[in-house]
Amino acid sequence: MKAAKGLKAAKEPREDAKGDDAKFWDLRLYVAGQSPKSLRAFSNLKKICETHLAGRYRIEVIDLLKNPQLAAGDQILAVPTLVRKLPVPIEKIIGDLSNEGRALVGLDLRPRSIGADGAQ
Amino acid sequence: MGTIRKNIRASRTPLPKSPTGISGLDEITLGGLPRGRPTLVCGGAGCGKSLFGIEFLVRGATQFNENGVLMTFEEPVRDVTQNVTSLGFDLDSLVARKKLVIDHVRVERSEIEEAGDYDLEGLFIRLNYAIDSVGAKRVVLDTLESLFSGLANHAILRAELRRLFGWLKEKGVTAIITGERGEATLTRQGLEEYVSDCVISLDHRVIEQVSTRRLRVVKYRGSTHGTNEYPFLIDEDGISVLPVTSAGLEHQASSERVGTGVKDLDSMLGGKGYFRGSSILVSGTAGTGKSTLAAHFADAACRRGERCLYFAFEESPHQILRNMRSIGLDLGRHVASGKLRFHASRPTLYGLETHLATVHKKIADFQPRAVVVDPISNLATAGSLPEVRAMLLRLVDFLKMRQITALLTNLTSGGQTLEGTDVSVSSLVDTWLLLRDLEHNGERNRGIYVLKSRGMAHSNQVREFLITSRGIKLVDVYLGPAGMLTGSARVAQVAREAADELKGLKEVARRQRLLKQKRQAMEAQVLALRAAFEAEREEVLSEVAIDRLRREKAGGDRAEMARSRSAGTGTARGNENGHGMAAVRRDREILR
User: Fold this and answer.
1) Residue of A81, A94, A97, A113 to mutate when probing chain B, most B C-beta within 10 A
2) Phi/psi at B266 (nearest 5 deg)?
3) Largest pairwise CA distance in chain A
4) Between helices B487-565 and B570-591, what is the axis angle to 10°?
5) From CA B370, how far away is CA B561, in angstroms rounded?
6) What element of type H or E holds B282?
7) Averaging pLDDT over each range in A32-36, B390-394, B565-569, which range is the top one?
8) Quick one: CA dihedral B326, B327, B332, B335, positive or negative?
9) Which residue of A has its CA nearest to B123?
10) Using 50, 70 and 90 to split pLDDT, how confident is the model at B517?
11) B332 Cβ partners below 8 Å, 6+ apart?
12) Catalytic residue numbers of B?
């Protein structure tokens, strides 16, 4: 699986980041095999991160088909689910992230109210 | 045609079922829940659906060797475990022994952002993992509907749930899905659309501040089932459903007789007492001795070595024991020996159905041969009249089915006709004893009579019944020209009669004495008369003798004179003399 290759692909945070630059995004993407939704989610996530968080994020992809025991730990129900471990508080974004507006809200990259309105 | 039908029947295999182990439910469903299929258990908040699910799993693991998975959407694992500890279910131990997996699925809407298309594969994976880890055959999802509040996209959710139920069937697990009751539907989210094999509805109704739990099998595809609403209990043994129906009239009628505990009463009932397995109603106004009679019945049963269960709806067991001790009935020793058991509760404590359920359960536990319900009239406060009647009908039927001799007491309230019960059970019972106050001359006394007693010769007499320090005693009432007399009127009458009798005796003695005196007087008179007579006779005799002597003397003189005048007349003189003595003797004879 392509996405799996990016597993634990951590990128060092950039020194010159501005605004929330001090923050670091620790993300975990739960997928179930190489379903279209999973692949779509990974590519969407990758795109968003590169655009908004270049160098300040880490994505861990977990395939629940291979590691089903990990689903309970993060209370995974829907697939795909992106768990934002950092920055706190923990936030879950479910879906293939095709709705970028909502994904940005979930990643705390856009204020909730605007995101909620603009999402639909 | 016949063969075809036969073939169809032969090829038709009965729906495999998975016994729940929940007492009573397997009877209603004729074997349990459909094996390998999902069952929907729905009901309002606090109706016991979670417990239903948990008990299904626990019984499966402990009794049927079927491991289970509990997926809870509402409470954390620790809370679930704690909740059922009081019911004797040790979930921790089952988890430790790998017989049970509990997975808490927490869905918090505020923590979830939905961005795009998704499915619930994660849930499937978790469930699948849990099932496979213990080889589970049973699954409980409690309450799936929480997902609707956690996830915004209901279209996806519904599609996924449909897939989930299909998947569960494919997996071959027997599943229970719980659902919250909706306003017009069985479940708020219409889960009944997806789960069509078996639907069980639980209900927790409160009518006039009294709660009753009920269970109903709404639907069971491919199987017959009881369709009634059945009361159920949640107590220290978990859920027990009571398949109480009007069992019909198929019970055996025993001709064995059991004593009433009161010897005189036995003799009123053909000399032998009640029939075993019959139902006896003792009705009467307050303070007529119903409980006392019931206690005698219980005592007699225990003395026979039978177990007796005493349902007290009015008094506490201690109070009953104390009261009965005062009349010389020591029920305490029967309690100590385990033959007598009390179950006391306030009728208003819970609903009728629950009462009935409790009665059933206690009877099933204790297996008594005799039961006392004291009094049934109090139950009327726990429900409406038709309900009470239906409940008592079922109770009486149930007791008869089990050949339990039952004594029910009924308090007749003032102003009511005595020959009636406010709960109209009189037609259900076999023997009806009526206790009544007999008011007369400013006092109240107790009377007892047998209003009816099916299948036996019984007394038609009203007897007065006394509660003495040595139990109940029946005495004949006085029936006289002045009517029926009881109590002190009877005592007075008895005394009066005794006095009358004494008076009669005295009169006889007096007359005897009088007669004796008369006889004595008469005899004295006779004696006096006789004495007078004797005196007179003696006088007469002596006069006669003197007269004769004089005449003889005169004759002698004459002879002397003749002799002196002429000799040879001596013979004649002697003859004369002899003749004289005989005459005297003759005279005496006459006068005697």
Assistant:
1) A94
2) -55, -45
3) 39
4) 170
5) 132
6) strand B279-284
7) A32-36
8) negative
9) A77
10) very high
11) B321, B325
12) 74, 314
pLDDT digits (tens, 9 = 90+) for B365-414: 899 999 999 888 877 776 677 777 777 887 888 888 888 999 998 887 66
> CA B516, B518, B523: angle at the middle one, nearest 5?
95
For the stretch A4-9, contacts whose Cβ atoms lie closer than 8 Å and that sit 24 or more positions apart, written own/partner, are: A4/A61, A4/A63, A6/A42, A6/A46, A6/A59, A6/A61, A7/A60, A7/A61, A8/A58, A8/A60, A9/A58, A9/A59
Tokens at B69, concatenated: 């998975």
ipTM > 0.90 for the complex:
no
Tens of pLDDT, residues B11-50: 456 788 999 988 788 888 888 899 999 999 988 888 888 8
Cα dihedral across residues B573, B575, B578, B584: positive or negative: negative
Angle at B309 between CA B305 and CA B310, to 5 degrees: 125
The encoded tokens of residue B105 equal 């699925």
CB distance B494 to B471 below 8 Å:
no
Taking a C-beta distance cutoff of 8 angstroms, is the pair B47, B213 a contact? yes
- Whether residue B113 and residue A100 make contact (CB cut-off 8 A), yes or no, is no
Query: Integer distance in angstroms from the first to the last C-alpha of chain A?
Result: 31
pTM score: 0.65
Tokens of B254: 């025993």
Single-letter code of the amino acid located at B3: T
CA-based radius of gyration for chain B: 51
In what side-by-side order are the strands of the sheet with A57-63?
A9-10, A57-63, A25-31, A81-86, A91-94, B112-114
Joined tokens for residue B352: 């009728």
**B contact set with A (CB within 8 A):** 103, 105-107, 111-123, 125-126, 128-129, 147, 150-151
Report yes or no: B258 and B403 within 8 Å, Cβ to Cβ.
no
Across the interface, whether the CB atoms of B111 and A71 are under 8 A apart is answered: no
Kindly give, in sequence order, each residue whose CB lies less than 8 Å from that of residue B176, ignoring residues fewer than 6 positions away: B33, B38, B39, B40, B41, B52, B53, B56, B138, B139, B140, B141, B142
* Cα B239 from Cα B245, distance rounded (Å): 18
Q: What is the DSSP letter of B13?
A: P
pLDDT in tens, B69-106: 999 998 888 988 998 888 888 999 999 999 999 999 98
* Chain B residues with CB-CB distance to A77 below 8 A: 105, 107, 120, 122-123, 126, 147, 150
Location of structure tokens 């036996």:
B456
DSSP 8-class letter at B376: S
- The 3-class secondary structure across A1-60, one letter per residue, is CHHHHCCCEECCCCCCCCCHHHCCEEEEEEECCCCHHHHHHHHHHHHHHHHHCCCCEEEE
Are A95 and B119 a contacting pair at CB < 8 A? no
pLDDT at A22: 64
Of residues B281, B457, B467, the one with CA closest to residue B377: B281
Q: Which residue of A has its CA nearest to B125?
A: A68
Q: Determine contact, residues A99/A119, Cβ cutoff 8 Å.
A: yes
Assess contact for A60 and A7: CB atoms under 8 A.
yes
Q: Name the residue among B528, B434, B443 with its Cα closest to residue B491.
A: B443
Are the beta carbons of A68 and B120 separated by less than 8 Å? no
d(CA B373, CA B356): 11
pLDDT (average), residues B470-483: 75
Apex B380 CA angle, B374 and B383, nearest 5: 130
CA-closest candidate to residue B551, choices B588, B582, B577: B577
Provide mean pLDDT across the span B163-192.
87
